[in-house]
Amino acid sequence: MRDKVLLFINGDHPKTLPDPGQYGLIACTDGAFHYLKQLGFPLEKLDFISGDFDSHSGSDESVYQDKFILTLDQDKTDFHKALEIILEKGFTEVDVFGGSGGEQDHFLGNLTVAYAFKDKMNLKFYDEFSEYYFVPNNFKLKGVKNKMISLYPFPSVGNITTTGLNWPLTHGSLSITSRIGTRNFAVEDEVSIQYESGDLLFFVGINEIEYPSIY
C-alpha cells in the first residue's frame, strides 16, 4: 500500500485512526489538521497540509509551517485542491477520511469532487458507517455477506444487473429522480454489479447487519 495516499479532510473525524505506516504519502486539509492534533495523530508524518487556511489558528502549528501549501482558488474546495496536489506528485490511489458528517452541503460537494476525479484517481471514502466509492461498469466485491449495500446513481445508471443482493436488479435502471438502490444488503459472500451507462456510487457497510434495514 506504499503507493497509496492517506488524505484527511474537514468532515467528521475518524473514530479510529488508520495506520500511517501503510501509506506512501499522508496529507490533510487545513481544517482537518486541528482534529488530527486533538486525536494525537503523529503530525510529523504529514507530507503536506493544504488549503486557504481560513481554518488555520496558528499557535503551535508554526513548527509545521514548511509543510503548508497555500491554495487560494475560491472556485475550488480544499478537497479538490488537495487532490490536484496529489496528482502532481504522481499518486492515483487515495483513501479519504473526513468526507462525510458535518454540514451536508460539504458532503455533497465532496461527492461532486470525487466524481470530477473518478477517471483520474481511485478514491475510496471511509467513515464510521461505511466505505463508499465510484465503481466501474463491471465490479465484484467479496467478503460482504450480511453487510448493508447501497447503490446510488450519479445521476443515472442504465441496464444494471446485480447478483448477491437480497433485492437484485436484472437489466434495470436507476436514477436520482425516480429509483435509487439504497439500503439493500448482501445475501452472498460476493456481490457483482454490471451496468452499461452512467456512473454508480457504491456503499458497503462496515459491520454486518442482523436484519434488513430499509426505509
From TrEMBL:
Domain of life: Bacteria
Protein keywords: ATP-binding, Kinase, Nucleotide-binding, Transferase
Domain Thiamin pyrophosphokinase thiamin-binding: from-to ranges: 143-201
EC number of this enzyme: 2.7.6.2
Gene Ontology BP terms: thiamine diphosphate biosynthetic process; thiamine metabolic process
GO MF term list: ATP binding; kinase activity; thiamine binding; thiamine diphosphokinase activity
EC top class, as a word: transferase
Protein transport as UniProt keyword: no
Pfam families in UniProt: TPK_B1_binding, TPK_catalytic
Protein name, per record: Thiamine diphosphokinase
Organism: Chryseobacterium shigense
